[in-house]
Amino acid sequence: LQGVPVVMLMPAISIDPELRSIWPDTALGCVFWSAPVRAEEPRLWQFFNQNVLPGLRLSLERTELADMPQIGPSRQAFKAFGRDPGRVRISSEALYRRVRQGKDLYRINSAVDANNLVSLETGFSLGTYDLARLSGNIVLRAGREGEAYAGIGKDELDLCRMPLLADDQGAFGCPCSDSRRAMIAEDGPDTSSPRRLLTVIYGFSGTGHVSDALNITQKHLEVFACSQLFASSVVY
């Protein structure tokens, strides 16, 4: 692929019309970027502890989880898709619950931690994926009967009627828990070498809020993950 423009290596991303008909406010924010993936970025955690955590704790004390940003629309969308949002929570709600319980956040790596920072600031579920582990174009669609994958930190995730991202190999991501196949793993390339990555914002409240979150995402990726941004868009 030497000499091939990076833009040609980016998969097309779309939303399945059937899923859109169930929840018309479905939208995705997508960022294609590259960066060396480091074990930890101290500046990110300093920013989180000083600029995000105090206000977030106060909001969580005063606000029901269902009324936190983006949680309500996501729960309503999951009900429309046929899944119980009390049993399958989007990742941002899980992060909110962890903060509310006074637990420390997991520290994964510079890419995933930046992903989670945006989730906590905006309420959106985000997924960051290693493009080297994906093939073909990508579609957001509803999970099929019997469809499942090995989730990160989970033995198996039931994907039936779940909004999920799929490539030519099948499902690899969803707003609740991503697959091990597409995760940014320690057995990938040398961390000193840039990795080609895709970050997706899962939105169920229309394009406006997703567009705002996309701007925040790009800023945080540049500052806290040393990203080189190639392209970004809102898919709806």
Describe the structure.
The chain has 236 residues and is of the alpha+beta class. The chain has six helices and ten strands, in the order E-H-E-H-H-H-H-E-E-E-E-E-E-E-H-E. Helix 2 runs parallel beside helix 5 (110-122). The longest helix has 21 residues, at 42-62. It is globular and about 45 Å long.
Short description:
The chain is α+β, with helices and mostly antiparallel strands and about 240 residues long. It has helices at about 15-20, 40-60, 70-80, 90-100, 110-120, 205-225, and strands at about 15, 25-35, 125-130, 140, 150, 155-160, 165, 170-175, 195-205, 230-235.
In terms of topology, how is this protein built?
Layout: E1 13-15, H1 17-22, E2 27-36, H2 42-62, H3 71-81, H4 91-100, H5 110-122, E3 125-130, E4 138-142, E5 148-149, E6 157-158, E7 163-167, E8 170-173, E9 194-203, H6 207-224, E10 228-235
Parallel strand pairs: 1-4
Antiparallel strand pairs: 2-9, 2-10, 3-9, 4-7, 5-6, 7-8
Unreliable residue stretches = 1-8
Distance between the termini: 30 Å
Number of strands: 10
Approximately what portion of the residues adopt beta-strand conformation?
15-25%
Structural class: alpha+beta
Order of helices and strands: EHEHHHHEEEEEEEHE
- Any idea what the radius of gyration is? 17 Å
For the biggest sheet, the summary is:
4 strands, mixed
The backbone outline, from C-alpha atoms, is globular
Arithmetic mean pLDDT: 93
Give the helix level as a range of percent. Answer: 25-40%
Discrete helix count:
6
